[in-house]
Write a structure and sequence with these properties.
This protein has one domain. 0% of the residues are buried. The longest helix is centred in the middle third of the chain and has 20 residues. It has 4 helices and no strands. The chain has 74 residues and is mainly α.
Length: 74
């Protein structure tokens, strides 16, 4: 499975499941050096930019994101 396919499947999970998965993935990065982590984040940012430029993803307005975050914390 390609990383983009995996990402699409993971995004279908409910928020608590995604949070647990994200935590596990972040813990797995603890074994990497700071330089390796920085390189991985740069790769991810470039991948996201390419996906945006290719029209593969849609942006979410900041107002909508903030509204959803506020509703979760209530």
């Amino acid at each position: 499975m390609k990383p983009t396919e995996l990402e699409n499947e993971v995004l279908k999970l409910d928020p608590p499941s995604r949070a647990r998965l994200a935590e596990a993935l972040l813990r797995s990065l603890d074994e990497l050096s700071e330089e390796e982590v920085e390189a991985l984040w740069l790769d991810e940012a470039e991948r996201r930019e390419r996906a945006w430029d290719a029209g593969e993803v849609e942006g979410i307005p900041a107002e909508q994101v903030m509204r959803e975050l506020r509703s979760r914390s209530e």
